[in-house]
Structure formats: structure tokens, C-alpha cells
Amino acid sequence: MKVFFTSTAAKAYKKLDGKMKEKVKELVEDLRKSAFPRRYDVKKIAGADRTYRIRLGQFRVVYAVYPEKEHVVILKIDKRSRVYRDM
To answer: Residue 4 in contact with residue 73, Cβ under 8 Å?
Structure first.
């Protein structure tokens, strides 16, 4: 699988502190192997096709899966209190 970031997610990634950046890097490596890595708490987002979230402490990583193209697109990285706005 190829993993892509939206511009919003890329900006959010750059603003993260060192520990959280490392966790997101590990997540990206795991997403390359499988769109639904077992070691994370993956949940489907209700009312949205192909969209899932992974919990990383206080943060959530929202991503979309396109199996026909073998792509995973990271849509948002933000704290739980803000990540679901505008969805």
C-alpha cells in the first residue's frame, strides 16, 4: 500500500512534538503493510465510506482506504476534541 498525506494532515504532522511524530511514523509504516493494522485501535467512522480512525493517545489519525488503487490517504491528525469537526 502507498500512504499519502493531505496538505492539512502534512501541516498537522509538522507541528507535532517529537514523541508523537515517532508514533505517526510507526503508524505510516504499519499502514504500508496493511490498511487495518492489528496493533492499533482502528474504528470505521459512521456515515463515511472508506474512512477510519486510529487512536494514538489524545490524538486521532483519520484516513481513507482505496483498495482498488492500493492507496491509504491520511486525511487529518488532531486531538480528539477537534478532529471530527467538519466531517
So the answer is: yes
Count up the domains in the chain and report the number.
1
Q: Which residues, other chains included, contact 60 with Cβ-Cβ below 8 Å and sequence gap of 6+?
A: 53, 54, 76, 77, 78, 79, 80, 83, 84
Q: What is the CATH number of the domain that holds 11?
A: 3.30.2310.20
pLDDT, tens digit (0-9, with 9 covering 90-100), for 13-58:
999 999 999 999 999 999 999 999 999 999 999 988 899 999 999 9
DSSP letters for 23-60: HHHHHHHHHHH-SS-TTS-EEEPTT-TTEEEEEETTEE
